[in-house]
Structure formats: C-alpha cells, structure tokens
Hints:
Blueprint: E1 3-4, E2 13-14, H1 16-30, E3 35-37, E4 50-55, E5 63-70, E6 92-103, E7 106-116, E8 124-129, E9 132-138, E10 143-151, E11 156-163, E12 168-170, E13 174-176
Parallel strand pairs: 3-4
Antiparallel strand pairs: 1-5, 2-5, 4-5, 6-7, 7-10, 8-9, 8-11, 11-12, 11-13
Amino acid sequence: MEFHFIEKEKLKTINPVSLSLLVALILASCNLPGNIVSQTQTANQNPAGTIVAMTVQGIPTSTQIIGFIVTNIAPTKTAWPMSTRTPPNIPVWSAYNYTCELATGGGDMTMHLGWTDRSNSEEGYKVYRDGSVIATLASNSTFYVDVAFVATGNSLSYSVEAFNMDWQVMSDTITYGCQ
Length: 179
C-alpha cells in the first residue's frame, strides 16, 4: 500500500497544534512508527513510513506540509492464544451397584454410580446411558443415581465423561440389566 499526497499548488499553511493532531491521527490510523523529518531524509531511510515537513522561514508558528509517503506496509495478523488447558484425567469407577424393582415386561433399575475424581482440570462431568447424555454435573462430582425402566432381556450401559473447554475423556462402560 502506498499513499502520495504531494501537490505544491494546493498546499495550506497550518499551525503546529493542527499539524501535531494531523500527524497523530495519521499514525494512529495507519499504526505506523513514522517520524517527522527534514526535507533531506528520503523514504528509503524509513521504510515503514515518512512524513516530510518543512518549517516556513520567518513564520516560526506555521508549518507547511510538503508531502506524505507511506511505503512497505505489511498487514499484521492477530494470533489467537493457544490453549493451555490440560486434559482431565479419565474418571475411574470406584463403586456402582443397582437394584431392580420388577414390573410387567421388565423392571425399574436404580443404578448408583460412583467414580474417583482424579483431575483438577475438569469443568464438569457428563453421565451417559446407552450413549446418550442423561446428566451434566459440576466439577469435582463423584456420584450419580439413575432410575430407568429396563425391558426383560435388555440391559443399560453407563459411562462418565470428564470434560473441559478443550478436552473430553471417558471412563470404561459398565452394563447391567434386571433379570
């Protein structure tokens, strides 16, 4: 990207405060480290950008803009922060037991699930029954009780997942049914 504003016929005399504000505005909008330099400095001496100004002799409060040159501007990219989270440790079953209350065609199974919280980087836990989430629990949770109907000859499978924003790790699956 290159800008050239050099037209001697259309130059205006402005006061130093206005010039300072103009330079600050230009540099802020372009994000350049440009300098105000004398007439003798060339654009090659400051490849990021140059503002050329000259003080008019005899009028110390006025400055005349001779030109503005922007050269070699490379676009900048913002890097997204890398994740520093570590994966939670896999939950390990510590206790689980069930009871069945027989009913026609099967039974109501009450499953008491317990696991060891071995992690300090989890944001919570998800409890799964037959591959579907049935509960989302807070971090440091270590138990859940589920009541579900189980048809005769069928079983239910359970697993628990520790998760944070970047990771999910799942326990082994346990499977039981009412007979």
